[in-house]
Amino acid sequence: MQQTFPRLLLEHARQRPDAPALREKVYGIWQSLSWSDLALLVRRLACGLAHAGLRRGDHVVVVGENRPRLYASMLAVQSLGGIPVPLYQDAVAAEYRFPITNAEVGFAIVEDQEQVDKMLEVRTECPALGRIWFDDPRGLRNYAEPGLDSLDALIAAGKAHDESNSRLFDGEVESCRPQDVASMFFTSGTTGNPKGVVHTHATLLDRASAGARFDNLGPQEEVLAYLPPAWIGQNIFSYAQWLACGYVVNCPESSSTVTIDLKEIGPTYYFAPPRVFEGLLTSVTIRMEDAGAIKRGLFEHFMALARRVGPALMDGKPVGLLDRLHYGLGNLCIFGPLRNTLGLNRVRVAYTAGEAIGPDLFTFYRSIGINLKQLYGSTETAVFVCLQPDHEVKADTVGVPIEGVEIKVADNGEILVRSPGLLKEYYKNPTATAEVLTTDGWYHTGDAGFLDAGGHLKIIDRAKDVGRIVGGPNDGAMFAPKYVENKLKFFPFVKEAVAFGDRREKVCAFVNIDVEAVGNWAERRNLPYAGYTDLAGKKEVLDLVRECVEKVNADLATDRMLAGSQISRFLVLHKELDADDGEMTRTRKVKRGFINDKYQVLVDAMYGGRTEQFIETAVKFEDGRTGSVSATLKIVDAKTLPAVSGKAA
Amino acid sequence: MADKKIGDVILDVRNISLRFGGVKALTDISFDVREHEIRAIIGPNGAGKSSMLNCINGVYTPQEGTITFRGQTFDHMNSRQVAEMGVARTFQNLALFKGMNVIDNIMSGRNLKMKTNLFQQAIRWGAAQREEEEHRAFVEKIIDFLEIQAFRKTPVGRLPYGLQKRVDLGRALAMEPQVLLLDEPMAGMNVEEKQDMCRFVLDVNDEFGTTIVLIEHDMGVVMDISDRVVVLDYGKKIGDGAPEQVRANPEVVAAYLGTSH
Question: Are residues B3 and B80 in the same domain?
Fold first, then answer.
């Protein structure tokens, strides 16, 4: 079955014209847009864009939260053979310059005044950006910029153009081929300029359908679209699979109402990066700590039971009758209401991906009866490479290769993938394309890992980050920074961590505390603090973090391969690592090299044996202003343990 | 920003004096407010700013002077009458119903617009139900406008201060006022909350054309958003004009910064 996105839209509109396609909460009430309404909207938008001069192969930037009319705009662009380029809505204007220049973008469709302001700022350097349309007119009435107009105006123009050229839309949709480019996603990239990942209708739809078949997704699913649309994960789950399956995508009212909307919608198919699940669990834990003794006792009793039998029940393994009854009771008074409060009561399949998820966190959700699974993929592979089948879920693997995927582990441990969903190329970057895509169709993921005995893929780290300890007692031991950092981040008190150790004699780390969790902890101990920097410098907090580090060390000591990666010294940074300061990507991955250079003085102090170091750092606020934070940071020594079993590899 | 259409004088305050026993709160104050403008009243602590607002609002009755609103002249105002004429206000120390949720608090601002009586509303049938739905829809527009969708059902007492201020503004907006009196809308807020509030004040003025009279301490805010400024000190008017004029006025500088005698 070879399809394109616009054809799928028209097919849904023909087969189920009145079924809801999108829902959005307007003035407090959920309003649905049926497939036929959507098809008409897309038709008008497309005719409006054609009238404005959009040609086949042109790139159109789309920036905003998940809004039905922005989704319709992407479909409209694709109907004309254009290529929508979604960009992160929370990026600062300067970050748009590269993609807009690189893809020679002439048209932008954005959500509101905030985005319009950024586009106008970018336009001073990218004069080709001639037309900008906005969805929400609020605050824009007095803007008299040339080429700026509302989506309503575009729709009206499209309606008029459609009346005089009634064959135009259908003809354009007909001439779209599956091999045409459908979308371009700029990967945030932890180094250098972002790269435009080019995907065709065929690559995206092939993976979307393969994923849907794997979990038997159908038109009855409900999905909440709340992650940035510029991220391929969001695009696959609420755009590609939406059109492939024809289910309902619900757009939250605003980013601050997501938890409320989640509860109201009760999605059946849910996707979130680990940090979202972590945030949910943290809020539950904090509220339980504030609850009365009886409630807390009940919660602890049943959670202990859930940890014991919940995962087994979820995996379909045999469980004793008494335990079953006991769990049923727990389901009635604790797990059910808890799932309902989290908005995950109706979830049939939930996925997490993007980074490693802590085993405790993962088990928590599974034990209360949420079918949370992991998957492996990236922008370049159109997400779906490996998925965990029901009943075969483990915390430390990412599942089995699904239909169409071949996996091979290179000699250096790097994982290679071949599938029909691989990127066509990096836009205007043949060198980068050649680096990752071999002529016989293998994609180099850049991840180091292996397939375990059961055929499940296990990821250790980014291949290029895996290093060696040089000198000292652990000379030659393998060092996997991300593996170590993830272990640290699994503690609720640790928000971020950056480990150093490649070509050095020991491992040192920067830590960011989780201000919510540690703040709550401090309040409980009557520990006053003024803000992040103050809290991070408290002796009690440093002791708390040291305990976490030492637990990680104890855990690493049992790992034959990574016992040498134990952390000997660490410090708690005076500011939170932030994408606005370039320290992280928009998907919240730390930029290791950048941080190393920026905080060179701190790294030197850790390895130089100093016990404290003064640092002053410039910070960028969301509105573009800058300020500075300074502090004298204490460097703490942590206990390391000898490897428990055998010699370090 | 493009030119605003500032209209004729809508509110004219003439020679107002207000005394509490021997204390002169206001002495011979005169100024006017034009339609669609943002008019600020500033001054140091105890200058009489809130008293001035309370005179316009009908909470205090001045001993001397007149207030002309839309061509009608009064020697004192009556609070209910003022509200019916389309003047709404917010309070410096937040007079919200702490135990009620955000929707109900804003809904209380619709009170004057309700036509059905208590008994019809208690039964909530026919006209009363239709009316409630209309008002509720209007409240939703305000909630959307002030971006407080996430707190609809939250009791107001549980919200942070900056958001309570927003709800207070929302309740005033529910009256669909022609003139909005804001008593220190930014007091006690952090920089970010102040910026948000400024945005909302400007948006109210821009979207609904509401005339705004605001009292404010933060000179930065006043100079940025108001069209004209009145300066009070010890109950007397010491300056009146555009922000840059007022800023250059030596008496104003002296009142704010103090002088050596």
Answer: yes
Interface test with B, best of A27, A30, A31, A264 (most B CBs within 10 A): A27
Q: Is the pTM of this model over 0.90?
A: no
User: Nearest-CA distance from B140 to chain A in Å?
Assistant: 5
Q: CA angle, corner A196, sides to A194 and A198, nearest 5? A: 160
Where are the alpha helices (H) located in A185-319, listed in sequence order? 201-214, 232-235, 241-245, 258-265, 274-290, 293-314
Q: pLDDT, tens digit, for every residue of B242-261?
A: 998 888 888 888 887 665 55
Q: Tell me the three state secondary structure of residue A560.
A: coil
Task: Find the helix or strand (DSSP H, E) in which B164 lies.
Answer: helix B161-173
CATH number (domain holding residue B188): 3.40.50.300
Task: Determine whether the interchain pair B207/A142 forms a contact, defined as Cβ–Cβ distance below 8 Å.
Answer: no
Q: Which domains does chain A have, with CATH numbers?
A: 5-200 (3.40.50.12780), 466-637 (3.30.300.30)
Which residues does A70 contact at the CB level (< 8 Å), separation at least 6? A62, A64, A109, A111, A135, A229
Nearest Cα residue in chain B from A137: B207
For residues B46 and B63, state if they share a domain. yes
- Indicate if the pLDDT at residue B1 is higher than 50: no
**What is the total count of domains within chain B?**
2
Domain boundary among B176, B201, B223: B176
- Asked if B244 is an interface residue toward chain A (Cβ–Cβ < 8 A), one would say no
H helices of A378-531, in order, are 430-436, 481-489, 515-524
Which residue range is the domain that position B47 belongs to?
A: 1-86+177-261
The residue type of A120 is L
